[in-house]
Amino acid sequence: MSVLVESVTKIYRDQKALDGVSFTVNSGEIVGILGPNGAGKSTLLKIITSFLHPDGGKVWINGSIIGGNNLAIKSQIGYLPENNPLYSDLYVHEYLVYVANIYHLKAVQSRVKEIIGLTGLEPEKHKKIGVLSKGYRQRVGIAQALIHDPSVLILDEPTSGLDPSQIVEIRQLIRKISTNKTVILSTHIMQEVEALCDRIMIINHGKIVATDSPTNIKALATKKVQKVLVEFDETITRELLLKLHGVIEISSLSEKVWLIMGGDTDLRPVVFRFAVENGLTILTLNKQESSLENVFLEITKQS
Predict the structure, then answer these.
(1) How far, CA to CA in Å, does 9 sit from each of 16, 41, 52, 189, 213?
(2) How do residues 66-93 score in pLDDT, each as one tens digit?
(3) pLDDT digits (tens, 9 = 90+) for 153-164
(4) Residue 238 DSSP symbol
(5) What are the structural domains of the chain?
(6) Is residue 214 scored above 90 in pLDDT?
(7) Which of 143, 177, 174, 178 is nearest to 159 (CA)?
(8) Mutual orientation of helices 92-102 and 134-146 as an angle, nearest 10°?
(9) pTM, entire model
């Protein structure tokens, strides 16, 4: 494994920001951390990167415990903080040379040239960071996180504040660089974890409340209820609709009806037989697929 987090706890005065968090991330895996504001996402990432020390628990990076001033372990981590602090008066190339020298890299100029090409900064390398667009500043932030070729990359809200085209570009960049690195990212954007992540961890009130692949996380909703849209050729009474096996809620009473039904078996055949038995014609019959956003809201609400 690449990252091991064991029983990590962080307390701020009387508030537990993290409460016994444990998980592993394997080498080459992209894991997305989802959670409401204040759930503990950024605190967790800062502890993994050793910017914060936990009040309890331990973190291993590639088999070594993080702690103290162990620069050898820290050098295996690349980190893009949420606010992406950069020196706005430095030129892009100049800044990356500065970061490379901090890491005491050999062949600094060739490494900076390589990382500029990888992150698509070639057209902007002679510009001051302060005049760059938000998308290019994020690229600079990712470039500084990658300059020393870490095996673990930590990205806190990497596409926050970007426009749709910039988001797509940054996602493509993350996917490109993840081929030989472990990536942990936090985000509020559901489409991001679906597009990028092999696994999702949902954190709420400092605890991990769900972890699985995006597909399996979405499937959690369909195991409890299904939402079926039915349009008949005439208005149906509530009393008649309640005779449908499995119906637990009816959201409208017109030709188009949303039926909330329990169980994980496809209930469209049940609705079809109901129509035949009652002399009705079905004009529309669709099962609503569960969205990651809906599942996220339900899980965090329950927890």
Answers:
(1) 7, 13, 11, 26, 25
(2) 876 677 888 899 999 988 999 999 999 9
(3) 999 999 888 888
(4) H
(5) 3-219 (3.40.50.300), 220-302 (3.30.70.980)
(6) no
(7) 174
(8) 20
(9) 0.78
